[in-house]
Amino acid sequence: MSLLHIAIFSPFLMAILVPLFYKGLRRIHTGWFVLILPIVLFTYFLQLLPVTRDNQAIQKSFDWIPSLGISFTAYVDGLGLLFALLITGIGALVVLYSIFYLSKEKEKLHNFYVYLLMFMGAMLGVVLSDNLITLYMFWELTSISSFLLIAYWYDRDRSRYGALKSMLITVFGGLAMLGGFLLLSIMGDTFSIRELIAQASELNDHPLFLLALLLVLIGAFTKSAQFPFYIWLPDAMEAPTPVSAYLHSATMVKAGIYLVARMSPIFAFSEYWFWLVGGVGIFTLFWGSFNAVKQTDLKGILAFSTVSQLGLIMSLLGVGAAALQFDGIDDNIYTAATIAAVFHLINHATFKGSLFMVVGIVDHETGTRDIRKLGGLLSLMPITFTVAVIGAFSMAGLPPFNGFLSKEMFFTGMIQLLELDLFNLQTWGLLFPVLAWVGSVFTFIYSMMIVFKTFTGKYQPEKLEKTPHEAPIGMLIPPIILAALVVVFGIFPNILSYNLIQPAVAAIIPSLVEPGEKIPVHISHWHGFSPELKMTIGVVALGAIMYITLNKWIKVYNIFPNKVTINALYDTSLYAAERGSYTLTKSVMTGYIRTYLVYIFVFFIGMLGFTMWTEDAFTMDTSNLAPIGIYEVALVLLIVLATFTILVAKSRLTSIVALGAVGYTVSLFFVIFRAPDLALTQLVIETVSVALFLLCFYHLPKLSRHEERMRFKLGNLLISAGVGIVVTLIAISAHSTKMFESISKYYIENTYDKAGGENMVNVILVDFRGFDTLFEVCVLGIAALGIYGLIKLRLEKKGGVIDENK
Amino acid sequence: MVEMVMKFSLICFSFSMLGLVYRLIKGPTVPDRVVALDAIGINLVAIIAILSMLLRTNEFLDVILLMGILAFIGTIGFAKFLEKGEIIEYDRHR
C-alpha cells in the first residue's frame, strides 16, 4: 500500500465520511469538505509531472488475489497522469460549482457527494490501473456511480429512463470488454497491460486476437458514446449539470478514449483497428455534429457535441495507428494525429466543461434551457456570455483559442492519410477528410447557436420562469478558470507540449520511442498557407452562411422520420425483448403440471434415447440370466392385468383396488425372490396406502367424481410408451454389461462374524449402513409432522380473512 | 411326489383366486367385493405357505401371520365403514 494507492482510494474513504459531515455539520454546505480532496489530489498528481516528463513511469503494486495473478498495480505514465490531472482538476472545479448549484436546504447533498466521490475514485482507478481485472472493476464502478448520478433526481421519470438506458448500454459494453480482457489474458498469460504490450507482436498472430480486439472496442465505444452506442449520452443529460459537466464531458466518456489509447500498443498494428477506430470515430464526429444542430435544448446540443468531439478524438487515435507502420519518429509525420488526439482531449475537457457550467448557470438563472425561449441575455449576464463565447468559439475551432489549434492538427492528420499507401486507403481514404470537414461545418453551426441563440436576439421575459440576473460569483469561478485555460492553451500551447502531451503520446505509441528519446511535439499557430488553413476558412465561411440561413434548411431534419432513429430501435428492441420473453415464458410456463411433466418426460426420452443411440450403447447378453419359472409368469400376467385395469377402469375406485392388487402382487414377487422382510413391509405399507387412497376418494367433492374413463390422448400414449421403452432398454443394457463383481460377498461373510446378526437385511439397515436408516426415519418424522401441520394449521379460519401470502 | 402335490394345490389355489377376482370385479354389491377380498387374503396365506414349503424356508411364516392380521383388520374396517360411514369415530367426550 503506497501513497499512490492511498491517493486512488482516498475518494472512497472520503465517501464514507460524507454522510457524517452532512448529518453532523448541517450549517456548512457539505461540498466545502469534499472540495479539499480533489485539490489535494490534484497537487499530488502535479508533483509527479517531472517523472513522466522524461518518459519514466511509477509502478506500485499491491496484492489483491495473488493466487489468481490479480493485483492492484498502480501505474503512472504520461497517459495515466494526464487523465488523473483532468479527473482531479476538473473534479475540484465541478465540486466548487456544485456547491453553488445545489441548494443546501432542498437537495440530498450526502447522496450527491457520495456518488461523485465514488465516481472520482473509480475513474482514478481506471486510468491508473495496470491490471486488467482491476481496471474492469473500476470501470464497472464508474458505470454504477454514473447510473446513480444520472438518476439523482429519482422522482423524475426521464431521469430514471436515462439512468437505465446508460446503465444497460455501458454495462453491456463493460461485459464485452471483460470478455476481451480475458481473451487477452489467455493469449498473453498475464493480466498486466505492461507485460501484454511487451509481447504485442506475438499476440498479433494469435487466433483470438481479432475477437479480443472487437470486444475491447465494444467496451470503449459504448463508454465513449460512439456510433451507434451514443444514444445513452443525450438521455444522461437529465442529471444535475455538475454531473453532466464532469462525467459526460470531461471524464467518464473519455474512459473509452483512454482504453483505446491504452490498448493501442497491443492492437494498433492491425488493419482492423485502424479502420474500426478511425472509421467509427469519424462517422460519429459527423453524425453527432449533424444531429446537434436540430436540438432545441442547450444540454442536448452539448450532449451531441460531446458525442461528435469524442468521435474526433477517437478517429485521431485510429488514424494515429498509421504511424506504427513506419519506423522511427524523426520524419514520421503520422505521429501528428496522435499528438492532435491528446491535445484535443485536453482542450475538449476545458471548453466543454466550461460550456456545461455556462448552460447550468443559464438554466439556474432563467429556469429553462430551451433555446426557443431564451435570447437577449447578453446585457444581463455579461460574464457568463464571455465564458460562453470563449468556450463555443474554441469548440468551433476559431483562433486564438485552443480549439483552433487542435482542429488544424486534426485536419493535418486527416489530409496526411491521402498520401498513405496502406490498408486500401487509396480508395476509401478520401472519406476521412471529407467527413471531418463536413462535421466541422456543423460543429461551427451549433457552436454559434449556443452563443447567439442564448445571449443575443430578442429578450423574452414573459417565457422565463425567473427574472434572469448574473450568477453568484462562486458559480462563475470554475467556468472562468476553464475559459482562462482555453485562452492560455490557445495562446501558449507549448506549455503543454513537453509536460503533458509528449509523455502521453509516448505512452500510446511506445514502440516508436527509443529510451531517452522524445517525440517532437511542437504546436505552432502559423504553418504557412497550408490546405488545413484553407479548410478552416472554408468551414467558417460555409458555417456562417448556413447559420444565417438556418431557418430555410432546418426542415431537412424532418426528412428523417422519428421511427428510424437508433433511439427508436433501442426502445422497440427493449420493448420487444420484454414482450418476447413474456410471451415465451407465458407459452412455456402454462401453470399446468401436466405440461411440465410432458417437458420432463420428453427431455428424459430425448436425452437418454439420444445418448443410447449415439453411443451405440444397447447390448443384450443372455448368458447370465436365470431360468423363468411358472410362478413368475403367472404373477407377471397378474400384475399386467392389474396395471391394465388401472388404465382402463371406468371408476376411480376400481383403479385404487387394482393399484392395491399391483402392490400385493409385488409383495408376492418378494416372496418368490426370497425377500421376507421386503414382503412384510410391502404388505403393510400397501394396505395403509390403499386405505389412504380410499380416504382421498371418499372425500372427493361430489361434483368432480366423474365416473368416466380416462380420456385417450395419442401424445400421452407416445410419451409413456417412450419412457417405458427407454427405461427397459437401459435396464437390459445395464444388466448385460456387468463391469465387476458385486460387493455382497463381504456382507454374507461378515454379517454374523462382525455384526453379530443372522438377518443380513436388517444388519445392513442398522449396522453396515445405518446412516441411511437414520435419515429415512427423519423423512418419516417430517412427513408425519407435515401432515399434522397441514391438518391442524388453518390460518384463514382464525378471525376473518387472513391471507397466507402476506 | 410331495412336490407334485404342492404344485397341483398351488394351481388349484390360483384358480380359486381367479374366481374370487371375478367376484371382486363383478360382485354387484360392495359387501360381495369385501368378502371376495377377504377370501383372496386367506388364499394368499395358503399360497405363501405352500411357496415357502417349495422354497424350503420358514422365513415367510411372519408374512403369513401378517396377511391374516391385515385381512382381518381390513375386513373389519370395511364392515364398520359400511355400517357407520366412518372407520375411526370422533370422540365427543374428550
Give a structural overview.
The complex is a heterodimer of chains A (806) and B (94). Chain A has 806 residues and is an all-alpha fold. In chain A, 69% of the residues lie in helices and 1% in strands. Chain A is built from 33 helices and 4 strands. Chain A has a two-stranded antiparallel ribbon. In chain A, a hairpin with a 4-residue loop joins strand 2 and strand 3. The longest helix of chain A has 32 residues. Chain A starts with a helix and ends in a 14-residue tail after the last helix. Chain B has 94 residues and is an all-alpha fold. Helix content of chain B is 79%, strand content 0%. Chain B contains 3 helices and no strands. The longest helix of chain B is centred in the first third of the chain and has 25 residues. Chain B starts with a helix and ends in a 10-residue tail after the last helix. The mean pLDDT of chain B is 84. Classes of the chains: A mainly alpha (806), B mainly alpha (94). At the A-B interface, helix 28 and helix 29 of A face helix 1, helix 2 and helix 3 of B.
User: Overall mean pLDDT score of chain A?
Assistant: 85
User: What is the count of helical runs of chain B?
Assistant: 3
**Based on the structure, what is the oligomeric state of the protein chains?**
heterodimer
Instruction: Give the fraction of residues assigned to helices of chain A.
Output: 55-70%
Q: Report how far apart the termini of chain B are.
A: 62 Å
Cα radius of gyration of chain B in angstroms:
17 Å
Largest sheet of chain B: none
Query: Sheet bearing the most strands of chain A, described?
Result: 2 strands, antiparallel
Let me know the number of strands of chain A. Answer: 4
